[in-house]
Amino acid sequence: MKSIFMKKYWLLLGAVFAFSLTGCDSDNNKDPEFNPGENPKTDFAYILNEGNFKANNTSIMLYNKHNNTGTDFYYKRMNGEPLGDTGQDILVYGNKVYISIYGSGRLLITDKKLNKLGEISAGKDRAPREFAAGEGKVFVSFFDGHVGVIDTVTLKLDSKLYEVGRNPEGIAYQNGYVYVVNSGGLDAPNYDNTLSKINLKTGDISTIEVGKNPTSILPIKDNKFIIRRNGDYDENKDKGGLLVYDPKTDKVKAIDDALPGLLAVSGNKAYYITMVYNFEKKKNDLTYNILDLNTLKVKKESFLQDTSMISDVRAIAIDPFDKDIYIADPLGYKSAGKIHVFDKNGKFKKTFSAGISPKKIIFF
């Protein structure tokens, strides 16, 4: 018996204290030589570790690609304060970094070295989720049913909030519009099934039905988007899937034979990982396929040559410079996770340790 298994972000659990990977610099004040933006190559990465629910142990690791060293809890190291409870998203826009902390209701703005520049206290009830950016502004989804706008100069949240659907999550910007998918996750099994489209010029909001429990929206070629909807997390009910959304027509089309999964776009393809829980094995069965963005067909062949070191998957990211594939393995969410690195041909290169529940990876 199998069931579609996509853990809801707000239920992810685990416990660990401050952790640095083997080979990381110890707490001896010797930072890696870190000059973001001064080199066209991607020498560094930030890894947002979600932490476990209500434990206030969210962290950001600074990882040096070239000497395989890293420093976890780097924000705390730079600012003398913890990030808080249940980190959700991290975004680089311009010369600033934006961080959302769901459980603590915090929106943090830093420079690229994570020196704190400002903070917006959204409140725990507001519950910030994910970011998108455009037109010199940063847009944030709030789990209470709103989208907010952060002014990147004043670092303030605009007083006007856009009212969207229930429990909005994934968000994107394109050509004067903001798009956010509304999961209704807190009302399970009575999920939402909509996409909200915000016209930034007029303030008008339109609603498009996209199927039960949509949680992410990803820009692809031809100004279209892929929407992941998780359905009922159960293949015996609504097993969810992937949709292509065309904002010109406001139409959605299901991608054939595509279960809900994690995606990372690289050129004309998307690396696509699905997780189906196997009750007999008591773990996820994982598949690693390619989604051809020209044909929108799933190629049923693994993009990794060896997956024996992977126990589960929390996130996937592609280094924009060398196209290396980074896969975040949560290792049960109860201890420090791992990041497995593969080259663009899927050959295994290395593994390094991260914090608890590594959720997102961004490169510099």
TrEMBL record:
Q: Name one Pfam family in it.
A: DUF5074
User: InterPro entries annotated for this entry?
Assistant: DUF5074, Haem_d1_sf, WD40/YVTN_repeat-like_dom_sf
Keywords on this record?
Signal
> By its UniProt entry, which SUPFAM superfamilies does this protein fall under?
C-terminal (heme d1) domain of cytochrome cd1-nitrite reductase
Q: Which PROSITE patterns match?
A: PROKAR_LIPOPROTEIN
Signal peptide position in this chain?
1-18
Protein name in the entry = 40-residue YVTN family beta-propeller repeat
